[in-house]
Amino acid sequence: MTSPLQQKLKIAGPVVVTANRLGDGVVVYRTADNGWSTQIGAAAIATTVPAATELLHAAIADDISAVGAYIAPVEVDAGRIQPGNMRERIRLQGPTFDLPAIFGI
Amino acid sequence: MYLYDDFDRTLVDERIDEFRDQVARRLSGELTEEQFKPLRLMNGVYLQLHAYMLRIAIPYGTLSSEQMRMLAHIARRYDRNYGHFTTRQNLQFNWIKLEDLPDVMADLGRAGLHGMQTSGNCVRNITTDQWAGVAPDEIEDPRIWAEILRQHSTLHPEFSFLPRKFKIAITAASHDRAAVRVHDIGLRLHRNGAGETGFEVMVGGGLGRTPFIGKTIKAFLPKRDLLSYVEAILRVYNQYGRRDNIYKARIKILVHDLGAEAFAKEVDAEWQVIKDGALALDPAHAADITARFRYPEYERLDDNPEELRKARSSNRRFATWLDNSIANHKVSGYAIVTLSLKPEGGPPGDATAEQMESIAALAGRYSFGEIRVGHEQNLVLPHVAQRDLPTLWEKLETIGVATPNVGLVSDIIACPGLDYCSLANTRSIPIAQELTRRFRNLDVAHDLGRLHINISGCINACGHHHVGHIGILGVEKNGEEFFQITLGGRADEQAELGALLGPAVPYAEVADVIEDVVAAYVELRERPNELFIETVNRVGVEPFKERVYATR
Ligand code: SF4
Q: What's the ipTM?
């Protein structure tokens, strides 16, 4: 498996770096102040390959806070950040159906 | 039930302590993720889209009431109140926190449960017929052999770093409910002309990116040679299996590249060296394991007792369930009861903590404390007295696991897909949910008869789509969810891979297309009881294709 650092980056629009928080796996986004947030709105946006690479490198180095960091596309509309694809929408909002606790009894 | 011995208990306890230490070191930063990942995977802990996922082994799909109660407890205390039964007869929790995992493992360990052999390039949890030990058509209980193999392969140093994961399935019945032909090794226990029992050994089956039906490399292997022969296969694979390309690393590729005959020759050469050594079956060991499988003390009962006859004639819904979800038992007066985890609109294979707890209690009361998990993602109560069926049915109804759709169009096998899985291209559960709504009319479903729909959210094929009568595979096209549909696959003793129906269809059209396929079948079938799979075999895919794509 190629490590995220070795992958050749191609960026077609704004991106963020996302990962899962180490202790509980919750989805987090890399922020501009080198931290992590569960809010996609707080994510640092990169629009160039060098900026995205730098963000990713720093995120991967912060291995104790979050795991599996990678670059994900986003859409930015009037300053509002939204996930850029279905996978990222599901990561942010959860499964696209009601969880089974409401089935059965 | 199988009773674990001290060796197993010590092994599990040691693993729990070791894992607690590893998690603490990871959380403190002493271990990096790169160092920790293989350690967590060895305990069935994956990282998925939303959280960590814990996969728990259910050896040969057999659970006690106590174990099921423990799973309910884990669901309630550490997860989001439900678990997911998989096509590998395992259970997955989707929302586990790493911080909680040492306690989760300790709780599981108290019930003899763990996540070993559910991940990594080792011999995985061995699967078998969910009716093992009770099916009238079996010649002996295949779980004994699954257990012998489990003991031999668990943490086996030589086979802990195989080129890729390795799956073994065993059946001992004339009808294969364990899909043995699509496993790395499939074993079919049968009798030869001389009346002796032994194994047909199939190798190189598998689904995923490059699907193959397993090839028989030994028509009859005496039982005494099971371990040595399996070991010989693993050695040949370990030596020649490709490690340079993950997509070509499974044994099926090796068997295909070498050819089954040449592969069998290699195995045979290896086997001749070891067959009379330490791996030849020690009858005392086999007897010990056999003795550890405890069977219920059945009462002497007659088939079709009055309570059952009365309930059947007075309650149509009960009669429908009886005809659909009950199978004949080896012992007269008893029945095998399948609990459908496929309610209308439900995610296939999911059970809530309350359902698990109730099922544990019902198994305690009506099934000698035993439950089975089938690869179709349903549960089974394997030893129910027929006189208890009316009362049991009422209780199963109240907890939502008595939908009489077992083996029918709405009994859909689906992998977690993009709603959970980090490898997915597309969702699969919502497709299954929509199909259960489209086919909610049980009279229609019963008229259609046996029809298996299998859905996978990517080419890894965890939903076994290649061997679904109707297979649905999610693919990504320009960032959109599309689905390829195949017809005519089957996973039983006549295993076949499905044939492609035509171009992939978008998410929103899948349910319509499946309805069209089913409508085409109804028109094409020769007689009302010609099954879907028989019609596809007779006419091929083309007439279906014409019908489905004519208006698209
Ligand atoms: S088939 Fe693909 S999407 Fe489905 S569970 Fe397996 S890896 Fe995930």
A: 0.92
